[in-house]
Amino acid sequence: MVVVMSADAEEADVKAVVAVVEGAGGEAFVSRGVNRTIVGLVGDVEQFGTLNLHALRGVSDVIRISVPYKLVSRENHPDRSVVRVGGVPIGPGTMTLIAGPCAVETPEQTLQAARMAQAAGATLLRGGAFKPRTSPYAFQGLGEKGLGILADVREETGLPIVTEVVDANDVELVASYADMLQVGTRNMQNFALLQAVGGIGKPVMLKRGMNATIEEWLMAAEYIAQRGNLDIVLCERGIRTFEKATRNTLDISAVPVAQRLSHLPVIVDPSHSGGRRDLVLPLTRAAIAVGADGVIIDVHPSPETALCDGPQALVDEDVRELAATARDLPPMVGRTLTTV
Length: 340
Ligand code: PEP
Ligand code: MN
What we know:
Elements: E1 2-5, H1 11-23, E2 27-32, E3 37-42, H2 45-49, E4 59-63, E5 83-85, E6 88-90, E7 94-100, H3 107-120, E8 124-126, H4 144-157, E9 161-164, H5 171-177, E10 180-183, H6 191-198, E11 204-207, H7 214-226, E12 232-236, H8 254-261, E13 266-268, H9 270-274, H10 277-290, E14 294-298, H11 316-332, E15 336-337
Parallel strand pairs: 7-8, 7-14, 7-15, 8-9, 9-10, 10-11, 11-12, 12-13, 13-14
Antiparallel strand pairs: 1-3, 1-4, 2-3, 5-6
Helix pairs in contact: 3-4, 3-11, 6-7, 10-11
Bound molecules: phosphoenolpyruvate and manganese (II) ion.
The site of phosphoenolpyruvate has 9 residues, from loops.
């Protein structure tokens, strides 16, 4: 059981909840987030039900749920959520296109990629300044300099920024530039990082771990929510299977499954799942058809010189086709492409 305190609850209100729970022989774990405080209860749920916790001062909600993830579960929150990123909605009814380079390399490359993203109809810009690379010898990203480039390109194009944070110690720095923080597949179970982004008060895009079940993915989201941040977007980016023809296997069924289990928006990354330029548009169509709330796509002005993931980046000709797909397909499944 979880007690959600209202935004204006005082410390004394939280203490009163803890006292009532402990008085009934239960344990109460308090988690103070930026926007709200959440108290997790451990003990006899039936008995907690008799305590009339709703009536205590400062309590906004008392949630009793059968699944292990509580705050992100749809049991507690039947309506699907809309997460706003710099004013751009991601959620039911719309299809939001996020595009940009895998990595920020130079100001020119980032601006050109952002223009390509806009030409495709994107309303959010992706781009990594901190890159989690499999090889320690590969380009690791420009770090804070890259964040500065993204901020300049946002200024120039008006596109809010989605960028990855790989270390809990960098969360404040990245959040000072980003409109949405990305937690990548390799960090989906980096619990210190999840708690840090949960405490920062900016939307978070949580990619599914390449070896994670849907339940593990939702439990990772719960770590963020438990710190008071419910502005979470789930991203299916492909999982590891025995298949070697693609970089990862896009688990397309994870989209409706996660949407049924959780109220959070679910988007798809066709670039990192297929890992090949020729698969990005077909997988994008599949994602829109299955009901994804958005897609996030790599574009690059010259993939042959890209420092990261060139083989999966779309080029200009593809961008025209992506624009047509993003415009024409969503209405067929009852959605409209998000515009600004
Ligand atoms: C990325 O989006 O740049 C990225 C590294 O993705 P993933 O974590 O899914 O591999
Ligand atoms: Mn990449």
